[in-house]
Write a structure and sequence with these properties.
Blueprint lengths: L1 E5 L3 H10 L4 E3 L2 H6 L5 H14 L3 E5 L5 H12 L5 E6 L2 H13 L3 E6 L2 H10 L3 E4 L1 H6 L4 H15 L4 E4 L5 H9 L4 E4 L1 H6 L4 H23 L1
The structure holds erythose-4-phosphate.
Length: 223
């Protein structure tokens, strides 16, 4: 399963890239706003900066909600860097635009997906990625990971090549559960990725190994 980081923070992207396990980046307008990035020129420059730090696909989301606007914006974003993936909302004009981008060889990520039916539409339009938001489903008492498993079964039934990009991940167990049910990608906050490193028995075990090594070295020095 690929690991993407879900942020527009350049320092967090750098940190995740340095971990050696990062495969890409997703952003959205809220994450860009959180970093204080606004205005077309700054937004464009920020996407270029992200592409220069991270290896792998970088999702850049369109703001337009009409077909012509999505196409115009998407083509501009796609021209910025070969790693740019045009992120398009799950609306009628969005799906139609995904079909257009697919024919043009432009990679797409269909965002704000909350049902298997929506995921089926993404696959039929030829989206590169479909982004089901599992945390937001959990927030409304609906099993987000179960949706990932359902989409996996549907895509496997027909050999759809759209990659399932589990989004709105809140914690490390979401990542493990997504891997278990066959998500192709998990896009995660940095905190969820680094939490995967931790286990108290690893910490205790390493302390003991190092203490034993030090003791043996001291005994050798004395002898
Ligand atoms: C997906 O690409 C979105 O950027 C993101 O995962 C949404 O997550 P949230 O529900 O934590 O805002």
């Amino acid at each position: 399963m690929k690991f993407f980081i879900d942020t527009a923070s350049l320092s967090q992207i750098k940190e995740a890239q340095d971990l050696g396990v990062l495969d890409g980046v997703t952003t959205n307008p809220s994450l860009m706003a959180k970093e204080g990035i606004s205005g077309e020129e700054r937004v464009i420059q920020h996407y270029i900066d992200i592409c220069n730090i991270a290896t792998g696909d970088v999702s850049a989301e369109v703001i337009s909600t009409d077909y012509a606007g999505i196409i115009r914006e998407g083509e501009k974003l796609a021209a910025l860097h070969p790693n740019i993936v045009v992120k398009v909302p799950m609306i009628r004009d969005g799906v139609k635009a995904i079909k257009y981008f697919t024919h043009k060889g432009i990679k797409t990520n269909c965002t704000l997906v909350f049902s298997a039916g929506q995921a089926l539409l993404c696959a039929k339009a030829g989206a590169t990625y479909v982004s089901p938001f599992i945390g937001r489903l959990d927030d409304v008492s609906t099993d987000g990971v179960a949706l990932i498993a359902q989409i996996r079964r549907i895509y496997d039934n027909y050999g759809y090549e759209t990659q399932i990009l589990a989004a709105s991940i809140r914690h490390p167990m979401h990542i493990v559960q997504c891997a278990e049910v066959g998500a192709d990608v998990a896009t995660c906050p940095l905190s969820a990725i680094v939490a995967l490193f931790d286990h108290p028995l690893t910490t205790i075990g390493l302390e003991k190994f190092l203490a034993d090594h030090k003791k043996a070295a001291q005994q050798t020095a004395k002898a």
